[in-house]
Amino acid sequence: MIRSIWMVAYRRTGEEDMKSGAMDLRGKRIIVLSDNDELAQAIELSLSHCLALKITRIPSSLPESKERDSNRDEFDMIVLATSLPTSEPVVMLAQAALTQQIGRVPLLIVSDRPFDPDMHHQFFHLDFPMNAHALRDKIREILHLQMSQAINQLPTK
User: Fold this and answer.
1) Which CATH number does the domain housing residue 45 bear?
2) Ramachandran angles phi, psi of 79, nearest 5°
3) Quick one: CA dihedral 53, 138, 77, 125, positive or negative?
4) Is residue 95 part of a domain?
5) CA–CA separation, 79 vs 106, rounded Å?
6) How many whole angstroms separate alpha carbon 71 and alpha carbon 139?
7) Distance from C-alpha of 79 to C-alpha of 73, rounded to nearest angstrom
8) In a domain, 147, yes or no
């Protein structure tokens, strides 16, 4: 159900996104973590096709990860989407062995539980349920902010 709704949104806006400056995000790497595999697939589809991002999706059925995937150290952002009221973002990050990334890369939490974003620690929020276009806009905004901060930290001559 979720995936079919997003497919309609993707068909309507995907081409527009590619024409509107999304090309400068090509190749950025994002980990998608969710308590709902269908939601994670929809997010992956939307981001990989419309914004040309490289997505690594961690299945919700993944047991606590004792082995770390070497690719998990090389990414630009985490998208954590919760659809169940019992899901806890910190627990999900711990089970995916991603807690060490908190504060190092932007973390977008998609949830129906509101909280105040913390730009200093790179915590961002998007209300769930959301549409594909709102998700892409938020991802684009966060990655552009990250890129501009990196440029500002370059040494000047």
Assistant:
1) 3.40.50.2300
2) -110, 120
3) negative
4) yes
5) 8
6) 20
7) 15
8) yes
* CB-based contact 130:108 (threshold 8 Å): no
Question: Which residue type, as a one-letter code, is found at position 93?
Answer: L
Sheet containing strand 77-81, strands side by side: 54-58, 29-34, 77-81, 107-111, 123-127
Q: Is the pLDDT of residue 68 over 70?
A: no
Closest by Cα among 56, 1, 61 to 31: 56
Instruction: Say how far apart CA 37 and CA 30 lie, in whole Å.
Output: 16
Which three-class secondary structure state does DSSP give residue 96? coil
Q: Which amino acid is present at 153?
A: Q
Residue type, 36: N
Question: How many domains does the structure of the chain reveal?
Answer: 1
Residue 157: inside a domain:
no
Whole domain around residue 12: which residue ranges? 2-152
Residue 96 CA to residue 52 CA, distance in Å, equals 24
Structure token digits, residue 47: 């981001």
Q: Is 19 contained in some domain?
A: yes
Does residue 33 register a pLDDT over 90?
A: yes
**pLDDT digits over 42-51, tens only?**
999 888 877 7
- The pLDDT score that the predictor gives to residue 109 is 95
Q: What is the pLDDT of residue 79?
A: 96
pLDDT of residue 14 exceeding 80, the answer is no
Nearest C-alpha neighbor of 92 from the set 80, 84, 100, 103: 80
